[in-house]
Every structure is written in C-alpha cells, then in structure tokens.
Amino acid sequence: MNLTANIAGFNFDHILLNAAGVVCQTSDELDSVLASDYTGAVVTKSATPSLRPGNVSPRYHELTNGLGTINSMGLPNEGFDYYMDYVTQKQTDKPIFFSVAGLSKQENLDMLHKIEESEFNGLVELNLSCPNVPGKPQTAYDSETTEEILTEVFSFFTKPLGVKLPPYFDIVHFDNIANILNKFPLAFVNAINSIGNGLVIDEETDTVVIKPKGGFGGVGGPIVKATALANVRALRQRLNPSIKMVGTGGVTSGRDVYEHVLCGADLVEVGSQLAIEGTSVFERLEKELAAILTEKGYNSLDEVRGQLKIIE
Ligand SMILES: O=C1NC(=O)NC(C(=O)O)N1
C-alpha cells in the first residue's frame, strides 16, 4: 500500500509528522519524532533569532471535554542557532522542516538569509500565523505585508520554502490569500495554525484557563477540524498544483487523516493529539488510515488525494 508523498523532490515514506510547536522544542523531542517508524519527517518549533522563554504560565490547557486544547505559549524556543545546529548536524534520511517565526519582517529575512547561506538541505516553513505574541498580529491576515515579505524572501531564497497559515473564514479571504501565494514559487502551504484568540473558562472557578492575554489563546484539536478541512480544501482548489498542501488541525483518528487527504493534503500534521497521546499516536493513525484504504479498496493515497465529492 502506498502511503507516501513528495514535496519539492523530497520523498516522504509516511505522510504523518508533528505540527510545529508540539514535541519539537528540544533535540530530544525532535529525535523522538524522527525515531518513530510512522513519521515521514519532523518540523522544528518555530525559531526566533534569540532564545525565548515565551509567555507566563499557565499557558497551555487541554479541554476537559476532550474537544481540544488552548495555548498561548508565546513562541518559547531555544533560538535560531540551536535549530540551525540541529538541522545541519542531524543524520537522518527523513526530510526536516525548519520552522521560523520572526517577530518582524527583518527578523524573518535575517533568519532566511542565514538558512540560504547554510548547509541546511531540508525544507523551510515560514510561520506567518502565530496568534500568541502580545501586541503582534497574525501576519498572514495582512495581505499587503504577506506579499511584501514573500517578495523580499524570493528575491534571494532558493531552497524549498512554504508558509504556515492561520485559518480563514471567508470565501473572499480564501481567494485573496491564494491569489497572493500563487505569485510565488512556494514548495507548500500548511493550513491551519490554531484558531487564534479563543477563550476557555474553568467551570469550577469561573476563571479563564490560561494566564497570558487575559485567557485568549490559540485553539486546536477536534474542535477545529471543520475549519482545518475547509482551509485545506479551499486552498487546494485555488493554489497552483506546483504548491503542495500540508494539512494540520483536528486530527485524532485515521479517518481525520483520510479526510485531510480527501481535501488535498500531501502531508498531515498532528498537534493537540500528539501533545495528549505522545509519539505512539503516529502508529495508531497510520494503521487506522491503512485500514480505511483497504476497506475502500484503495491501494494508494494518490487515489484519494483531492477526491472529495460534492453534492451535484
Ligand atoms: O504559531 C503558533 N501557534 C500556536 O498555536 N502557538 C504557538 C506559540 O504560541 O508559540 N505558535
């Protein structure tokens, strides 16, 4: 059975990997994702130029009803050089995604110049969608800024690069962002990041469950699946076929993976469920996915990808 994918000439023997931010801040965590027999790659925690402690705690919470998570981590990471060392020294035959999230256009350009001039030979994920840095917007909600950044990036950057997008909720917004992204030789687009600035209340104490930003944080998990699938589907329908799709959001079962592929995903990332279940989640998800393909008489994900049916 063919459960593989290809982006920018990189072969992925499995389509599952972590979502940036989950089990990927330290080299041990990154190693644990790579070590799984059921991951095709790993993505680093989004790097900022310098080490960052992130927001005050409590900053992460799993909803007691199992419907998802809320976080306001605030881009805690070991700093750009730590991840540059990891990705350039790591011996692995699995592709590595190097995620970067500068707090300004210049920070992003500086990090990307360093990657361009480095020995790194993986893929880069430019995170334009972190909702949790107080005072900072989710960049990809600003069309002009997004186009400006990508224009400057592609004036010098030649390695495979994709963008991590926030969820959009309006058909015209899907049209707008796709029109912008289609102007650039992107290797992939990753949809979605968490749904920004949700609010979860503790029913015992009538208090928010996370401290930063008065309790506002990015929402993930099952509760965001419908939005995640819509964004993967809408972008797949609009983006040039040369731009591959990474589907993220709401994956807790093989069926969820299957639905992301139906909507057009080439790779599928696991965030909240990986945080909750640990790296054994990848084996469970791939086996559940394989069982669905067998049940439906498919032998390859190529027969499924993008084949979502509509009601005529
Ligand atoms: O892009 C991000 N998305 C999130 O949901 N959280 C993290 C963070 O806060 O670091 N970053």
Automatic annotation (TrEMBL):
<dbReference type="InterPro" id="IPR023359">
    <property type="entry name" value="Dihydro_DH_chainA_dom2"/>
</dbReference>
<keyword id="KW-0665">Pyrimidine biosynthesis</keyword>
<comment type="subunit">
    <text>Homodimer.</text>
</comment>
<dbReference type="InterPro" id="IPR013785">
    <property type="entry name" value="Aldolase_TIM"/>
</dbReference>
<protein>
    <recommendedName>
        <fullName>dihydroorotate oxidase (fumarate)</fullName>
        <ecNumber>1.3.98.1</ecNumber>
    </recommendedName>
</protein>
<feature type="domain" description="Dihydroorotate dehydrogenase catalytic">
    <location>
        <begin position="3"/>
        <end position="293"/>
    </location>
</feature>
<keyword id="KW-0285">Flavoprotein</keyword>
<dbReference type="GO" id="GO:0044205">
    <property type="term" value="P:'de novo' UMP biosynthetic process"/>
</dbReference>
<keyword id="KW-0288">FMN</keyword>
<dbReference type="InterPro" id="IPR005720">
    <property type="entry name" value="Dihydroorotate_DH_cat"/>
</dbReference>
<dbReference type="Pfam" id="PF01180">
    <property type="entry name" value="DHO_dh"/>
</dbReference>
<keyword id="KW-0963">Cytoplasm</keyword>
<dbReference type="InterPro" id="IPR001295">
    <property type="entry name" value="Dihydroorotate_DH_CS"/>
</dbReference>
<dbReference type="GO" id="GO:0005737">
    <property type="term" value="C:cytoplasm"/>
</dbReference>
<dbReference type="GO" id="GO:0006207">
    <property type="term" value="P:'de novo' pyrimidine nucleobase biosynthetic process"/>
</dbReference>
<dbReference type="InterPro" id="IPR012135">
    <property type="entry name" value="Dihydroorotate_DH_1_2"/>
</dbReference>
<dbReference type="InterPro" id="IPR033886">
    <property type="entry name" value="DHOD_1A"/>
</dbReference>
<dbReference type="InterPro" id="IPR050074">
    <property type="entry name" value="DHO_dehydrogenase"/>
</dbReference>
<comment type="similarity">
    <text>Belongs to the dihydroorotate dehydrogenase family. Type 1 subfamily.</text>
</comment>
<dbReference type="GO" id="GO:1990663">
    <property type="term" value="F:dihydroorotate dehydrogenase (fumarate) activity"/>
</dbReference>
<comment type="pathway">
    <text>Pyrimidine metabolism; UMP biosynthesis via de novo pathway.</text>
</comment>
<keyword id="KW-0560">Oxidoreductase</keyword>
